[in-house]
Amino acid sequence: MGFDYALVHIKYTLPPAIALTLLYRPLLQRIDVYKILFLVTIAVVSATPWDSYLIRNQIWTYPPNAVLGPKLFLIPIEEVFFFLIQTYITSLLYMIFNKPLFHPTFLVDRGSAVAKTEKRLLGRTIQTVLVLLFIAALVALNLSAKGKYLALILLWALPFTFFLWSLSYSFLLNLPTSSTLLPIVLPTFYLWLVDTIALKKGTWMIASGTKLNIYLWEGLEIEEAIFFLATNILVVFGLVAFDYSITIIQSFPNLFASPPELPSPILLMKALMIDSHHYDGQRIAGFQSAVERLKKKSRTFYLASATFSGRMRIDLILLYSFYRVADDLVDNAETETEARQWINKLTKFLELAYLQHEKKHNISKQQATIQKFVEENFPHSSQSALQFLPTRYLSPKPFYDLLDGFKTDLNFLKLRHGKLIDNFPIINEQDLELYALQVAGTVAESFLELAFYHTRAKTSLDQRKRLQSAATRMGVALQYVNISRDIETDAKIGRVYIPALWLKDEGITCEQILTQPFGLAVEKMRDRLLALAFKIYHEALGEMVGLPPEVRSPMKVAVESYMEIARVLTEKNYQKKDGRAIIPIWRRLRVAWRALSDYSCF
């Protein structure tokens, strides 16, 4: 009995596992736990017979004075734990690198036909290489005892690798290289170092007659290096296949109407067996357009959306994409008449969209009518945002309120073209609040409706009303932050959202803000807006504890990400880009991590 192998875990495997757990814990969701348990189970079950065979045939051994004693099929309990802890560490690294990604956008390659052909060729080539390596290992096993250990590693690992690669290479090759390569390389290199220490100390040993005596570096046998590389590849390929399956299940309601939150292994395999020709290509294109739009126009929201999961995240992105499209159509209009036409077209679209839910018959005909209307009346780049708006479980009122808010902006278009108006649209604080309720409170209300629809928690009618009230107030606070940030950029397009009476108190006019949107007076107005935003934020924040657990922390991330803009604006010496305050990515991540840490949603 000895403690050498146990000390390897205490010194080298448990510390990174604990550190990664603490780092990822705020982001951890039920599906993540399920994924890790799924992979760990497969790793232990698949490696145990193979490892037991190696020990039984004395290809590798563990000195009795290096292990505690308990064994599973001749395998020291410390070795069984190694299967578990390695899979756990690699899984956490993979999830950290993949958390920001929106996987539905990678279901189909957006490259050229040539690029797609090249990827298919690469996939088939790697399949061929894996088969040839397997045959070579089979031959080597019978040719020389010296290559026995390496041959057994390959004969064990290659079938699993071939299977996982064949299932998911079309998805894997679409993912950013860093999201799959780094979770393989980092733990592999680290475990090479750990293995070198253990081999030199004699914690475990390879029988001299079964190895090639080739070293990657002093103390590290080439067989061991290949083993750790192969096992980490298997873990990452397994995680990719799992995510591929989950993404298919969550992305296509036409294929999986009401999937469970934690799909069974049978359902996971069923999803992977579906031919990609059955995917809804237009829906995937809609995902891709939405993500591109949000990355350009609402990066803060897009990053915050990564803390949501499943269909909740999908619908949030589709919903916010619609809001961005609607806002851009009106904002980019050259004339008041054009802007009003867009508002009328959006109104007509909403009428058609909600009419189909009222009439239960001829749904396909109604959907065709909606599609035709969208294609004939909206730019191609914005059509998917309308077509995939999840109106089925969202009430229409917030959308119509939003369009009423857009009508406030029409007066600014009159000013842009030299038309006289009696007053600027935002005269007093009540006008400001109404406008913020219409263009931002409505967004928050729709988000909350999605949360109620997609979560397991049951909330009473009174509780929902309180949460909706708090959500709309929080939306107002966030809009005040946007207005305070965009004073300069709004002035460039002829808009001033600071109440005219506030400006009058300082002896300045809206016209002066348009020509000179900076200076002490403007900073005073900005501070006043931010003070109001923080006041409303603190009033509404307490109600967030009543949100369904699955969305409580992610919702706080979304809120805090915007409120961090307000905090930056109060610092005065902040960085700007195109007239707007910018927040470094490290600061965004810190805010998200803190927000998630405050509330336990698991």
From TrEMBL:
Membrane-crossing residue ranges in chain numbering: 6-24, 73-97, 121-143, 149-173, 180-199, 225-246
Pathway where this protein functions: Carotenoid biosynthesis; beta-carotene biosynthesis; Carotenoid biosynthesis; phytoene biosynthesis; all-trans-phytoene from geranylgeranyl diphosphate: step 1/1
Membrane topology: Multi-pass membrane protein
Gene3D superfamilies: Farnesyl Diphosphate Synthase
UniProt-listed Enzyme Commission number(s): 2.5.1.32, 5.5.1.19
Pfam families on file: SQS_PSY
Gene Ontology CC annotations of this record: membrane
Catalytic activity as recorded in UniProt: 2 (2E,6E,10E)-geranylgeranyl diphosphate = 15-cis-phytoene + 2 diphosphate; all-trans-lycopene = gamma-carotene; gamma-carotene = all-trans-beta-carotene
Keywords: Carotenoid biosynthesis, Isomerase, Membrane, Multifunctional enzyme, Transferase, Transmembrane, Transmembrane helix
Subcellular location: Membrane
NCBIfam families: CarR_dom_SF (TIGR03462)
InterPro entries: Isoprenoid_synthase_dom_sf, Lycopene_cyclase_dom, Squ/phyt_synthse, Squalene/phytoene_synthase_CS, Trans_IPPS_bact-type, Trans_IPPS_HH
Taxon lineage: Eukaryota, Fungi, Dikarya, Ascomycota, Pezizomycotina
Main location: membrane
A molecular function GO annotation: intramolecular lyase activity
Protein name: Bifunctional lycopene cyclase/phytoene synthase
Family the entry assigns: In the C-terminal section; belongs to the phytoene/squalene synthase family. In the N-terminal section; belongs to the lycopene beta-cyclase family.
Species: Erysiphe neolycopersici
One example of a Gene Ontology biological process annotation: carotenoid biosynthetic process
